[in-house]
Design brief:
The complex is a heterodimer.
Chain A lengths: L5 H11 L4 E6 L7 E7 L8 H11 L1 H6 L2 E7 L1 H6 L5
Chain B lengths: L3 E2 L3 H10 L4 E7 L4 H16 L6 E7 L4 H6 L7 E6 L2 E7 L3 H11 L4 H5 L21 H12 L4 E5 L1 E2 L2 E2 L2 H12 L5 E4 L4 H11 L6 E4 L2 E4 L1 H10 L3 H9 L1
Parallel strand pairs in B: 1-3, 2-3, 6-9
Antiparallel strand pairs in B: 2-4, 4-5, 6-10, 7-8, 10-11
Helix pairs in contact in B: 6-8
Classes of the chains: A alpha+beta, B alpha/beta.
Amino acid sequence: MSALTVDTFKQIIQERLQAELVTVEDMSGGCGQAFAVIIVSPLFQGKNKLMRHRLVNNALKEEIAGIHAFTQKGFTPDEWAAQGGKV
Amino acid sequence: MPVIEIKSQEQFTELTQDDSSKLIALYFYTEWAPPCKTMTSVFQTIAESKKDDPSILFLSINADDLSEISEIFEVNAVPYFILIRNATILKELSGADPKEFVSALNQFSNTPEQQAQAPAPAPAPAIQKKEVEEVEESEDELNQRLKKLTTAAPIMLFMKGSPSSPQCGFSRQLVAILREHQIRFGFFDILKDDSVRQGLKKFSDWPTFPQLYINGEFQGGLDIIKESIEEDEKFFEHALEAGA
């Protein structure tokens, strides 16, 4: 598998998790090995942290398996709005 | 020599400085950690079997009561073993693995077991009793073992490496968080046991490490714990109470 880039990864997340907003940060200095992502998606509604993470982990199984480090935060659109659209 | 239960730091200093040529085996335990119960009796049995060997000193230390000593050695998980000679740490072992402890003890003791019967032709290398271990474990057995491991302490951390030398940044961060909140925890080094490493991913339905269990309930990885702490400074306490 070729190295993941911020843009392709972002697109994948957007599609698979019906995300309204995705930020992807490459923490490995561009080598595509470590990503920190924030995902805002209605799919998270009514799910606790563990369930949200599992949802993301399952949706991105292959991608996560191919990289070294993956950090995620998931919000529903409402939660995201409530905290002013930033972490 | 029988096991000497350390009662004070002064006693500890005195005993450990008494004779520097001795091999000193330190065993750190706590009353509350179930794996310690097993290891306490293992430690006593081993000490008993070596009672005719004056060159080994067996000291057992309650890591809670004598936290100064635990801190000197940076013991942050129990059971924990340290072998010392000439004020030098020869070996540190954490976790409840009697075989590992015995083999380390044999490796560093002056008198390997065979020598008791007959003079050995050459210094015998430490005997590693590995034969028994290779038995294939069924999925059921593995799951039972995982169940036991995840409940081995109220808070169990499955990590890469040990708290004193984490082998991955995420594991390191989670250890730091636990310490910062002065949380007692047991841990398991998944790098030491690949069947646990692979099995636990399925068991927890979680692809990465570290993984944290509280009262046998999977809590999540580093991200979740971080978020939970941000939301509730007393997250660990509350999670512990919830399952109690």
